[in-house]
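Tokens in:
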């Protein structure tokens, strides 16, 4: 076994990976730039700093994020164990006392005989042959970002999320939407189109321009790529800009009228089964309540929309995972470099910790000469992994960071009511995780007994 694994970044992902590897008997050097240098969002000195909310979101396993909590707990995740110790009352959410949470993990790292802390900014990817895990997060400093860019190609490292909303397929009104591709391209009916008359379009543009926006953080210059402008910025440039941009109706005709609508909102499949649909070109900085209000009131067919994800645009350094990370989990261009956390294109505290956990298991497998078998696609961990490898997405998918959501899971057979579907997804995930653990010899604690009354399962 080699002497040391280098982990760059002591955030959620790096701390999880360091403790997991050390507890498995691997020597670790954890490089952390604080306190010498901080990103604009990091204020404290401790590891695993929660830079914004103190909530790790729903703990209810009938939600994809709650299921991810459960799986991490059952696999012995240090981050989840510490979150449980630092828990504060917050309904069905797992919220923590952030000082206690970070303090507990920092103390565990400092006390571990196999972890050495190196308080320094790492400016270049560590050299081979030692294995390393890069977990420097959404605000990775420029010098290391440049080194990553040199390794993978400039176009494979993005600096902004430009996230369009995703709507649940079953909530779209199919008496309004029509299935069609522009000029009948592809299968001819690949998109769902929501048609707007001139009056509806103009009202929509007015609402976008006047709607409430999220103010950029001080470190986020409101400077966007021209190809990825927020819709409200386009709307403010002129009344017809959207109708000639993402809402252009060319090559489409509404089969019910035989006419071309004045404008359309196009929805593109997020998954093969059509359970989730992406609003094409609708990245936005409108606040989430404003997105719900404006989209449901102004876009025909979305009046009862359920949102899988709402739109956002914010500073975020992330790799194009499906292009640059190979099936073995390391960078295709640097086989000794693994990446973990938000820099791989996962989004959120717990998803980042989960990504660190998976990277650590991969590294451990390689050190022990054992093949890494990925958790099944129907588990939350497997779904997250399939997002990063691109397996969860249709061809041509524009890779953008994602939380763990059920749209990343393989669909269930048949149609089910929402509550029933969630219960079935949970049962399937538990069954598959247990099968995977038994087949691979991974230690797994028992699933919790059912604490969730049916009225809490939505
Ligand atoms: C402003 C902001 C608000 C957010 N709010 C939320 C929220 O409310 N809820 C949520 O779930 N997610 C939120 N996120 C996303 C959140 O950052 C991630 O979910 C999570 O913290 C990412 O974990 P990570 O381990 O990948 O990176 P981080 O937790 O950011 O950790 C990266 C670590 O690497 C260190 N580092 C960076 N570069 C170097 C280097 N060159 N050398 C050595 N060390 C380095 C940093 O100091 C840091 O400690 C927010 C992100 C931002 C930027």
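Residues out:
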């Amino acid at each position: 076994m080699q002497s040391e694994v280098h982990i760059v970044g002591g955030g959620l992902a790096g701390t999880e990976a360091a403790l997991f590897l050390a507890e498995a008997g691997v020597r670790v050097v954890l490089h952390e730039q604080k306190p010498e240098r901080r990103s604009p969002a990091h204020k404290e000195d401790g590891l695993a700093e929660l830079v914004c909310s103190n909530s790790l979101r729903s703990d209810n396993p009938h939600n994809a994020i709650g299921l991810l909590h459960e799986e991490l707990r059952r696999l012995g995740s240090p981050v989840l164990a510490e979150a449980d110790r630092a828990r504060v009352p917050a309904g069905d959410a797992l919220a923590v006392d952030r000082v206690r949470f970070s303090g507990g993990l920092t103390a565990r790292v400092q006390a571990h005989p196999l972890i050495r802390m190196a308080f320094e900014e790492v400016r270049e990817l560590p050299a081979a042959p030692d294995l390393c895990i890069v977990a420097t997060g959404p605000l990775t400093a420029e010098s290391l970002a440049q080194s990553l860019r040199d390794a993978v190609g400039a176009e494979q490292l993005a600096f902004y999320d430009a996230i369009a909303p995703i709507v649940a397929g079953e909530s779209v009104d199919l008496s309004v939407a029509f299935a069609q591709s522009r000029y009948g391209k592809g299968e001819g009916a690949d998109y769902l189109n929501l048609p707007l008359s001139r009056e509806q379009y103009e009202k929509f543009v007015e609402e976008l321009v006047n709607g409430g926006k999220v103010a950029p953080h001080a470190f986020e210059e409101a400077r966007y790529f021209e190809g990825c402008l927020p819709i409200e910025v386009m709307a403010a440039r002129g009344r017809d800009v959207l109708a000639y941009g993402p809402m252009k109706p060319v090559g489409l005709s509404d089969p019910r009228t035989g006419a071309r609508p004045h404008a359309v909102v196009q929805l593109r499949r997020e998954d093969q089964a059509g359970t989730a649909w992406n609003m094409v070109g609708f990245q936005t900085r409108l606040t989430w309540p404003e997105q719900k209000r404006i989209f449901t009131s102004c876009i025909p067919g979305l009046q009862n929309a359920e949102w899988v994800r709402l739109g956002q645009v914010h500073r975020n350094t992330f790799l194009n995972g499906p292009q640059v990370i190979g099936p073995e989990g390391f960078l295709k261009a640097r086989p000794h470099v693994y990446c973990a956390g938000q820099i791989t294109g996962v989004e959120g505290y717990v998803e980042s910790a989960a990504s660190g956990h998976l990277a650590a298991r991969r590294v451990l497998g390689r050190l022990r000469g054992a093949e890494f078998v990925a958790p099944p696609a129907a588990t939350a961990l497997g779904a997250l992994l399939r997002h990063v490898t691109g397996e969860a997405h249709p061809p041509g998918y524009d890779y953008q960071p994602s939380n763990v959501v059920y749209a990343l899971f393989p669909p269930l057979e048949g149609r089910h009511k929402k509550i029933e579907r969630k219960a079935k997804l949970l049962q399937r995930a538990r069954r598959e995780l247990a099968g995977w653990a038994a087949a691979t010899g991974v230690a797994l604690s028992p699933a919790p007994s059912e604490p969730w009354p049916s009225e809490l399962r939505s």
